[in-house]
Design a protein that fits this description.
heterodimer, A: 111 residues, mainly beta, 0% helix, 55% strand, B: globular
């Protein structure tokens, strides 16, 4: 069993749709949770960062962490074609520690 | 925002030769840098953790003699792929942590093709 599981997709939605991306994990010691966006042949770009359980909102993006269920989510409201990319969840045990990534979900937003 | 620059962006080399990839933090001092490898449509796999002035810590299954990592200063880490073979062809990405911070800032990646 992988430490971090993420549905690879691909996921295709129409422009304006609400997108829900999810990851599950097995190690309850993870404390820091992140979502990265990666365009083709580019390095990942940090979208959201959350410590422990709870919600965090930034513009059209909302990140949720449920440590009791070992489940994290990223919601994208009013999705745009420019949101088309691969979204990677990542988590770490400690501050500044190594990141364990999910497989990434490929998202395509159609105009 | 913090900027991490990786060079080169792509490189093609002959089998048996060595290739060096540089990772620089341009506007901050990076106490820790990480090197990842990514195959097409797969996730980033951590290869090693690099701290300035000390030996890198390699993940299980990563050959330290093949993937040489040097973190000579707080703004530069290098990954040298020695005696490269076609199976080493991949996308290599570095990230850097600013001291006292938790965010990891990623370079743009280096696509290595060994022919």
């Amino acid at each position: 069993q992988k430490e971090v599981e993420q549905d690879p997709g691909p996921l295709s939605v129409p422009e304006g749709a609400i997108v829900s991306l999810n990851c599950t994990y097995s190690n309850s010691a993870f404390q820091y949770f992140m979502w990265y966006r990666q365009y083709s042949r580019k390095g990942p770009e940090l979208l959201m960062y959350t410590y422990s359980s709870g919600n965090k909102e930034d513009g059209r993006f909302t990140a949720q962490v449920d440590k009791s269920s070992k489940y994290i989510s990223l919601f994208i409201r009013d999705s745009q074609p420019s949101d088309s990319a691969t979204y990677l969840c990542a988590m770490s045990f400690n501050q500044g520690g190594k990141l364990i990534f999910g497989q990434g979900t490929e998202l395509s937003v159609k105009p | 925002g913090a900027v991490v620059s990786q060079h080169p962006s792509w490189v093609i080399c002959k089998s048996g030769t060595s290739v060096k990839i540089e990772c620089r933090s341009l506007d901050f001092q990076a106490t820790t840098m990480f090197w990842y490898r990514q195959f097409p449509k797969q996730s980033l796999m951590l290869m090693a953790t690099s701290n300035e002035g000390s030996k890198a810590t390699y993940e299980q299954g990563v050959e330290k003699d093949k993937f040489l990592i040097n973190h000579a200063s707080l703004t530069l880490s290098t990954l040298t792929v020695t005696s490269a073979h076609p199976e080493d062809s991949s996308f290599y990405i570095c990230s850097a942590i600013r001291g006292g911070n938790t965010e990891a800032f990623f370079g743009q990646g280096t696509r290595l093709t060994v022919v």
